[in-house]
Amino acid sequence: MTPVLEARGLVKTYDTGGAEVLAVRGIDLSIRRGEFVAIMGPSGCGKSTLLNLLAGLDRPTAGEVWLDGERIDQLSEAGLARMRRRRIGVVFQFFNLMPTLSAIENVELPLLLMGRRRRDARDAASLLMSDLRIGEKHDAAPAHLSGGEQQRVAIARALANTPDLLLADEPTGNLDSVAAREVLALLRAARDRGQTLLLVTHDARVASAADRVIMLRDGRVSDQSELQVARPVAFPFDGGDQG
Ligand SMILES: Nc1ncnc2c1ncn2[C@@H]1O[C@H](COP(=O)(O)OP(=O)(O)OP(=O)(O)O)[C@@H](O)[C@H]1O
């Protein structure tokens, strides 16, 4: 079966005015449809850079990115933007909500950009927000929401187009453990609906919910482990551990 996402010989260097930073040094990876994969590794090992390359938010210096059998790293900016809108949802650590739009306007934005009618977009956004238990926050400005609520708005926005692939960079990184538990439950629910999930995390409990953990070190994959057997029956945040 064609992997939903594939990286081949991916390299990314940053030129910082003379000194070259080798952020990603030749990564091959393949993500199966419906998989939940966590990327871990020490600070600065290239996790966010890799995620941005895979999401088509940045371009590799060398190597290839394939989404569902289509090479995407060579698409034009407009082609990349179209592809992202249709196929990929991205959740960032710092939420990246539009501050001048209300919560529901943030969620419906990708639908409007896809050409959905305003009424349909509003209905779909409203349903998603109710599912994520932020239904009463439609009209709130992002600045007036808690971190967990903002992250749920960001997840609703990422899920609005029912993307095949959900990419998340430290989606629980700025949340307390209660909010983190809720966000992880939402991500797992997305996976259970058949969406493919790739997330960068420092949190071992988040990683323990994944099917596979990819460890990065110095811009390379240092280890990959399947967790099918070790997967806990209970949700890792369940059981009263608030720490
Ligand atoms: N825009 C940039 N310009 C120059 N160097 C960069 C840029 N972005 C990242 N880097 C460098 O590339 C390397 C990888 O950074 P990256 O943010 O991908 O790491 P990370 O594993 O996500 O780190 P963290 O866990 O701390 O977020 C680091 O050495 C970083 O300083």
Automatic annotation (TrEMBL):
Keyword annotations from UniProtKB, A to Z: ATP-binding, Nucleotide-binding, Transport
SUPFAM superfamilies, alphabetized: P-loop containing nucleoside triphosphate hydrolases
Keyword Transport: yes
GO molecular function: ATP binding
Residue span, ABC transporter domain: 5-243
Family indicated by similarity: Belongs to the ABC transporter superfamily.
Protein name: ABC transport system ATP-binding protein
Lineage: Bacteria, Bacillati, Actinomycetota, Actinomycetes, Propionibacteriales
